[in-house]
Amino acid sequence: MALSQARRDLFRLFLKRSGGPQRLVTGEFVLQAAARGVPVLHVGRRELDALCGGRVHQGVCLEATPLRFKRLEEAEEPGLGDGENPNRQLLWLALEQIQDPMNLGALLRSAYFLGVDRVVTSQRNSCPLTPTVSKASSGAMEVFDVYSTDDLRSFLKAKAAAGWEVVGTVSQSETVENVPVISCLEFQWNKPIILVIGSEGDGLSLETQLLCHQMLVIPSGRALHPGIESLNVSVATGILLHSICSQKLRSSD
After folding, report:
1. Is the confidence at residue 122, as pLDDT, over 70?
2. Are residue 103 and residue 169 in the same domain, yes or no?
3. Are 60 and 116 found together in one domain?
4. Same domain, residue pair 83 and 160
5. pLDDT of residue 53 exceeding 80
6. Whole-model pTM over 0.85
């Protein structure tokens, strides 16, 4: 995806020397690289291992400029003005201090697959768009713009004032003062929403929780032992997004 999209400056493509079926796969990379004017170097595994810092590379390494977050100010606003239907089913995903690149990549992959309109991350204490994120996203990061803001709470307040519903997430055992907690199966999507996901260890900050109109919980399939009462953040987000997005699929049938 990085080769086929014109979003990075590309310098060199490194391919592991090989034969047999693997050669057919690398042949496709060679053709794509030639179309973009990217030099191709066939090297040994040790050199590839060194280039990739010991990470899994599957015999391919591309030298390119990094991708950066886009600022919200750069975005065309798909808002609610100019006669748009106020009930249009827009879905944004806001990420507060997601730090693990594998989780961020998996979140982007699910968001892209399930039809999220935009992903916004907090700048502070958040993982950048690294090669590991791109690999974990299975290329979604290469085609899907990711935005950042240095003031997530002000962003959420502004969207709420513009008529959006801000929806947070908690585990089954948590409660939030003055914010209703409901099962994701009971949630009704009837206006543009922002689903806010918190960090891997601490979840949403209290200040962000208090900006939410509702908190969603994923019901478990059994009584859970203490200490294993939660899901990985990317898994939980995928379940929540599917639960919400399935309402759009049903309404279009």
Report:
1. yes
2. yes
3. no
4. yes
5. yes
6. yes
- Of 64, 84, 99, the residue at which a domain comes to its end is 64
pLDDT exceeds cutoff 90 at 223: no
Same domain, 47 and 91: no
Q: Render pLDDT for 1-11 as a digit per residue (tens, 0 to 9).
A: 999 998 999 99
Same domain flag for 152 and 183: yes
**162: confidence class by pLDDT, cuts 50, 70, 90:** very high
Residue 80: predicted pLDDT: 46
Check whether residue 113 and residue 27 sit in a common domain. Answer: no
CB of 198 within 8 A of CB of 156? no
CA atoms within 13 A on the CB side of 69: 21
Say which amino acid occupies 214.
Q
